[in-house]
Amino acid sequence: MLRRCRQQVLRLRKPKALYRKINYDRYHFSSKEWFVYGLQSVGITGLLGHFFFGSYRWVVVLSPFIIIFLKKKQRDLCKLRKQELLNQFKEMLISLNNAVQAGYSLDNALTETYKDMLYFYQDDSLIVKELAYIRAGMRNGRTIEEMMEDFGERSKTEDIMDFANVLAVGKKSGGNMNEIIKSGISVIEEKIDTKQKIQTLLSARKLEAKIMSGIPFFIILYIGSTSKGYFDTLYQTLGGHLFMTVCLFVYLAAVYLSERIVDIEI
């Protein structure tokens, strides 16, 4: 019943083949993202100028930070994309394992898995794009092991590279592919589940770090609004500017250190 429903949905959607190769180590902003994150970076830089130097006009002096913030945003989005890919890859493994255990050959199982992913995800989802690219490569004479190995190298994700190795070893050994794939997928699924649990535990600590990084601004805002002129010496003298410059770099170093502490590679 589920398979019939899935086939009806796929016929209605008429999914487009997406064969573009993705480099997961680089993230390129879309036009909309350039606009949104550009404004966000200018706004953050302006707030730094206002709270540390008493004027939004310091955004001109602090403009190099705009580029730094944009680069950091690209790195963060790159990590989020890899995490999203890993979550979708786990679902792909479950579907592939079910198809192989149902008696499909590996190539046909991949086709069934592609249909399943089209049913569960959007046409432009990462795993659908990758499966479309893999199937296109197989139609051009490349083996599934080669395409999976290429996928693993581009993703720089250990679990995907492990799966590619499982396929390669299974083909070379000439053993029972069903059992090899089943056992390999089982181990990889457990690793992914463990990583997801750890990420869930770390998410609370990451939120705490973000809250702590915002507390100095609330303190400055509170003192500045309740005691007018309290920061005039810091904002209007050369010595004050030098002192606040040091404070700014100490603050940024503390934020960077807090992010590194909770950014644990699993």
| Continuous helix count | 10
> Beta fraction of the residues?
under 5%
Number of strands: 0
Shape: elongated
Helix share of residues? over 70%
Order of helices and strands: HHHHHHHHHH
Mean pLDDT metric: 83
Question: Low-confidence parts, pLDDT < 50 over ≥5 residues?
Answer: 8-18
Ordered list of secondary-structure elements with their pairings:
Layout lengths: L1 H12 L17 H23 L10 H38 L4 H15 L5 H14 L4 H12 L2 H16 L3 H50 L5 H5 L1 H25 L4
Helix pairs in contact: 1-4, 2-3, 3-4, 3-8, 4-5, 5-6, 6-7, 7-8, 8-10
Please tell me about this protein's structure.
The protein is 79% helix and 0% strand. The chain has 266 residues and is mainly α. Helix 1 crosses helix 4. About 4% of the residues have low confidence.
Give a quick set of tags describing it.
0% strand, 266 residues, 79% helix, single chain, mainly alpha
Summarize the structure.
By secondary structure, this protein is mostly helical. It has 10 helices and no strands. Helix 1 (2-13) crosses helix 4, helix 3 runs antiparallel to helix 8 and helix 5 packs antiparallel against helix 6.
